[in-house]
Amino acid sequence: MIENPLRELLEKKSCLRVIESVNALEAIIIRRLSEDNKGFDALWLSGFCHSAWKGMPDNESMPIETKLRTIEEIRRVCGMPIIADCDTGGTPDELCRSISLFSRLVSAVVVEDKRGVKRNSLYGRSVSQEMEEISVFSDKFKLAAESAEKFNIMLFARIESFICGENMETALKRAESYISAGADGIVIHSISSDGMDAFSFCESLRKMYKNIPIIMIPTVYNGYSFDELCDKGANIVIYANQLTRSAVMAMERTAKSILNEGCSRLSDNSYCVSPQKILAMIEEDII
Q: Is residue 107 within 8 Å of residue 81, measured between CB atoms?
């Protein structure tokens, strides 16, 4: 059986640093920053960011073929492990099919336990978001875990309890059920600015399962350093959308500058890398 590079990294390092990558250029940048073993350990194919770059809503409507083409483009320029956002996974059959298709390209997939029309978790309770029944999600997850084991791909369960208003007891009950169903790790999601619900969950879960990988996504509780999150119990920290968000700001600033100045000199000199730098970055990968 082919080794899983993410599983190997988790055995070697107590905590992994992961960042969003939803196109080949982002992957090249991250790879170049990570060549001295002090950078990022893996890439995150964000459903939110991938949809945004394609001009589509983050509602699970993107065809899996589009995701696969993007991952193939990333894989062509970067050999780092990839964790793919699989949203709710759809039906059990759809999720198992996704796992089989993803398996040759990614090291892990993440499946969240909400139901109904997908809405981005960052909306919180400002929009209608419902949790799937524990037994229903666990049954689906068990089938998916069997497929994941067959293809040697890691399968992480993402618990959305704190997004949808469930309490700690229910979140931990979900974790127990999903681990029993075959989860290789638990993603605990939080939109609390202090992250205390995620930290308390992590502390409680660690007392129950000493070795299960716990994944945090500190988009909202962003004041904690990587080391602090590791100390809180995280085994994987995902910076899930910062590259896309910073790119939007940069593109808006550059476009406004060209309109305001009537030419591109200011933006070229102040906001843009040289064309030569991009050419060199790409040519290094094809030589």
A: yes
